[in-house]
Amino acid sequence: MTALVRGVLLGLALYTGSLPVLSCAALVYHDYCIIGAGPSDLQAAYFLQRASRDYLVFERSHAPGSFFALYPRHRKLISINKRYTGKSNSEFNLRHDWNSLLSHDRRLLFQHYSRDFYPNADEMVRYLEDFASLLKLLVQYNTAIIHVTLERDEQAWNGHYFILTDQNRQNYKCSCLLVATGTWVPNVVNFPGSEYVEGYETVSTNPEDFTGQTVLILGRGNSAFETAENILGVTNFIHMVSRSRVRLSWATHYVGDLRAINNGLLDTYQLKSLDGLLEGDLEDLAIVKDKKGKLHITLRFYVENSNISAGIDSITLPQDELDNFAPRAPYDRVIRCLGWKFDFSIYNRSLKMMPGKGDKKKYPQIKPNYESTSTQGLFVLGTASHSIDFRKSAGGFIHGFRYTTRAVHRLLEKRHHGVPWPSAVYPVTQLTNSIIKRVNEASGLYQMFSVLADIILLRE
């Protein structure tokens, strides 16, 4: 049985519910392999399918959108679902539709799945399931890719093939690898007493579990404020601590900063209630637990230079000159809400997948065309590609990366299949009108400003 035939049988099996029996040594080949079945993965699969390319998507869960099945924990998305704009132009309306993926099927607009301006995450899961099934995308579920390496071959598109291994030790081979697994590994800060910290990914979402408690939240992003918003009405008070000040999206114009829907704690803080915002480097902190189970916040320096076995009384607590340091009161719970980072663990050293630097270290290093800086033919899509426009544009979110994914597909069509980048030809007399129309209607340029652009070529 040839590799091509095995690939066809595998694709057919996705619809029949059964897989052909292959030995562990069998190597299934596809031109394109996509790791993950989130929004950017399905968007890439859609374009490959429309172009009749040989591809397969691998998803570790039983359904697409597994990240949205868990997060956000309190199920309220911050991506707006603006169903009415007063315009009938579908391209213009996509400027204000932050959840739909690009397709030819009008049924797959998110406005048909939710009436809420800020939808429930469960509706996103349902939308992604329909996007995959209605468009008959080739997704192999319950397949976790646990290792990726290179096989050198001068006859390959990029001088090498990618070898993927799943949890059952089945191997797959492809010429081009699209990685769209997002950022899902929790950011963790280790300091003395960090074992007492609960993670955003596991902490209870039932407000009743926090009744009458005093809570410290580590972090000041949307997940931190979302957590605070959920328990604001039942706690004694909430303190939030982070290295940097709160950035409000309406002030920074960056969608990833704190959104108005989550900022209730800012009201109680600014209006002189008991809640508070503190600034400090988390790595300098320490937590000490007393005999009653209360958590005391101090500095790492004091813990490392004290006899902890002598009890909490022997640990110096930070205080200012007026003895008015806010965290002197003990906490019942400390919750970590520090966001996510990319999972580098499955990639062999041969791929040279390296994290970025500074505030981009949670993303892999990629070129401006979304290709790995070290490995040709490996492209990073979706949220994990946000290093290109971090804190500048919308490339880390559905309404941004749906366009950058399309751009990568067009690049691959040109590179490997000789298909020209789509373009329109107009007489020079229509140049001004064409530019004005694009400025007024185009959704990709509108969302991915400073990243995507139109090029106008004037023929002599």
TrEMBL record:
An example Gene Ontology biological process: ERAD pathway
Pfam families, sorted: Pyr_redox_3 (PF13738)
GO molecular function: flavin adenine dinucleotide binding; monooxygenase activity
Cofactor field: FAD
Keywords: Endoplasmic reticulum, FAD, Flavoprotein, Glycoprotein, Oxidoreductase, Signal
Any one annotated GO CC term: endoplasmic reticulum lumen
Family that this chain belongs to: Belongs to the FOXRED2 family.
Job of this protein: Probable flavoprotein which may function in endoplasmic reticulum associated degradation (ERAD). May bind non-native proteins in the endoplasmic reticulum and target them to the ubiquitination machinery for subsequent degradation.
Quaternary assembly: Interacts with SEL1L. May interact with OS9 and DNAJC10. Interacts with TXNDC16.
Name this polypeptide is given: FAD-dependent oxidoreductase domain-containing protein 2
Lineage: Eukaryota, Metazoa, Chordata, Craniata, Vertebrata
